[in-house]
Amino acid sequence: MSYTAELIAVGTELLLGNIANTDAQDVSRTLSELGINVYFHTVVGDNPERLKQAVAIAKSRANIIITTGGLGPTFDDLTKQTLAEAFGRKLVYNEEQAEIIEGFFKRRAHGAAMTENNLRQAMLPEDCVVFSNGCGTAPGCAFEADGTHVLMLPGPPRECRAMLASCAAPYLKKLSQSEIRSHNIHIFGLGESAVEARLHELMESMENPTLAPYAKEGEVMLRLTARARDESEAERLMAPVLEKVKSALGDIIYGIDAQSLENRAVELLRESGKSVAVAESCTGGLISKRLTDVPGASEIFPGGVTAYSARAKTALLGIAPGLIDKYGAVSRETAAAMAEGARGLFGADIGLGVTGIAGPGGDGSGLPPGTVYIALAFDGGSYCRRPGIFRADDRSHTRMLSASHALDMLRRFLTGLQVESEVF
Amino acid sequence: MSYTAELIAVGTELLLGNIANTDAQDVSRTLSELGINVYFHTVVGDNPERLKQAVAIAKSRANIIITTGGLGPTFDDLTKQTLAEAFGRKLVYNEEQAEIIEGFFKRRAHGAAMTENNLRQAMLPEDCVVFSNGCGTAPGCAFEADGTHVLMLPGPPRECRAMLASCAAPYLKKLSQSEIRSHNIHIFGLGESAVEARLHELMESMENPTLAPYAKEGEVMLRLTARARDESEAERLMAPVLEKVKSALGDIIYGIDAQSLENRAVELLRESGKSVAVAESCTGGLISKRLTDVPGASEIFPGGVTAYSARAKTALLGIAPGLIDKYGAVSRETAAAMAEGARGLFGADIGLGVTGIAGPGGDGSGLPPGTVYIALAFDGGSYCRRPGIFRADDRSHTRMLSASHALDMLRRFLTGLQVESEVF
């Protein structure tokens, strides 16, 4: 049979705008991967009457209701009570969960004392599937009543995500009786609409597997998802599509199931046994920060310099003052000298150098804010890339994309691809 | 009269989990500051039938309906058509908006050509208040019908936020007939629940002004909001509460209406004419990145070093190898030497040094992952702070909070406060 799910997020903090409803995004993504339709999300406060109202409406439109939030220990956490009542279930005390909750408090470093309230979390609808909470105290649960499946997940995003992956997704997978596999295709160097244009025909004709684009921070990710009886059949379904996508997009694909440009770059450096050092001006440490976001980066990253002053550029990176005077601090030549300087300073195989004007203001040179030069130096020369002028009014965007270009140049260099392409 | 608003976000990408509904958060925050109640959010796809259904339900529960999304140029953008129909309005062609849209395309750097579709955006409900779009092409609008106020805002968060501030908020303010003023109280050094505990009585008794806590990345922000006939009366209402909060929380308040710890630190450095340099190990460039997030940081930040290798720590920062051997790379002594080294290397007045184990793995020293030492060096000595062990399984949290501690030490040093307090 076909399933339609509806999400109900419970929490006054959502209605006050204290937080965004990221749980709905996490749950929705999982549901779409499972091929379960979602037509409505609802957010309601910690108010049993209005929650009952929302549940009644959802019940009339869907056969899976997933709630997030309202499982906490305080008296305004009423999701379990309200849903159990709406579906004629009693709440019963769950010994096992009570012990887990007590254990959680015993383990805690800063040992906040457990209150009686916390044990209210061990009250669960009778005959439900219990979802244990790996990150917090509130257990979730699922039950079927009147042909509707009700799933309850905790509100805190970390707890919700963890329980979604470990408990809710498997429960829903059983319903949809199919194995879901997906591959993420990571792209840097082309905008979302341009990517879609190249894949238009392919995407239009697809039903299973499906191909969905996600754009973020100057990157595009395509998620290829197949549903099948088993894993290997799902892979068989995806293989030809994956090939078509690869040949359509070529080397702007920086990884399949990679996590990020920095993860890919660190992976390639490890494989090649090479190290990289950075000298940053307008990115101000962001490249260094992104490389060290990757656990184990120390093996391939001796270090970096944020050269925000002329003194740092000349004295520390050993750039001839004359060079900066002649070409300007924001120039292809200075970027290359910074990259070479970083290489020497840290004894690395590869150096990255970035200089530019992040904005909003200019630097007096007459160059427009958003102008950035990125260089990669190696034993034998250097490459430089100058992306199109970035928006002067979006400093963080300019910095993030400049760092991404540097990491993209790195992975292109390490895989023998053309490094100097004018990407955007 | 009293107003109740309901939000309807339109967009299949929300139901697929491609993006989170941040528009709802932005709009809700504005509404709560205006004292307008919000009891429900709904998300619906680009489907006129289901949107009509959601509008009918909202109409029965609220007298203000605010939609976000579905104002785009493509044929699945049906918000205006559907809402106009639901309230018996015709859509009419708006000359002025058509010209604005054409102008937008003429101005564009990479000049994407305008299509006929774009002019569909100039169709608006008759007799509506037009909300011009400063950031994009899709105009929003508002009208009153059957005693319900309908506001339509664009979906892209940047456009939604801008139109909310410049058009929707003033429109709603007129309805609620009051002036809203608020102050943000920024706190570092105490968790949300502890802050609430200190202010419990004060917060309980409050109606106008209101005091709402927002927790994020190890910080707490209190938003104090007053409604009054005019600005000065609102300020008069807030003044005594602000004093009470200040005396209850003391110097863990790092700023009122400050933007962030880094903004506050840069501001204080400018005022004092002092400069700061950083030497980072486990934070890997994050402190440098955060300082340079602030426009104009170059005046007070000559630069920083990410010392991820022993060579960088000794050769570059001039730390005696013996010191690291004796005390370990992750120690109070090494942190202080790094801070002093950064000071010397960049000729700065103040140096910050951070060394620790971000995790998830250990460094072989036997110290638990999550152990971090942060030092501030100045002409005359150094201070060091060692926060409680961070969670080993949350590398980015450890790095972010370590950077925040360094920035907090900086602002405490510059304002003559105790720097070494064990904050967490």
Descriptive report:
- The first copy, chain A, contains 15 helices and 17 strands.
- The mean pLDDT of chain A is 90.
- The first copy, chain A, is an alpha/beta fold and 424 residues long.
- In chain A, the strands form 4 sheets. Chain A has a 6-stranded mixed β-sheet, with helices on both faces.
- The first copy, chain A, has helices at 12-15, 22-33, 48-61, 79-86, 95-107, 116-120, 157-176, 192-204, 231-249, 261-272, 286-291, 310-316, 321-327, 332-346, 395-414, and strands spanning 4-10, 37-44, 64-68, 91-93, 123-125, 129-131, 140-145, 148-153, 179-188, 210-216, 219-228, 253-256, 276-280, 303-307, 350-356, 372-378, 381-385.
- The first copy, chain A, has 3 domains: 4-173, Molybdenum Cofactor Biosythetic Enzyme, Chain A, CATH 3.40.980; 179-256, Alpha-Beta Plaits (2-Layer Sandwich); 261-414, CinA-like (Maf protein, Alpha-Beta Complex), CATH 3.90.950.
- Chain A is elongated, with a radius of gyration of 26 Å.
- At the A-B interface, helix 2, strand 2, helix 3, helix 11 and strand 14 of A face helix 2, strand 2, helix 3, helix 11 and strand 14 of B.
- Strand 2 (37-44) of chain A pairs antiparallel with strand 2 of chain B.
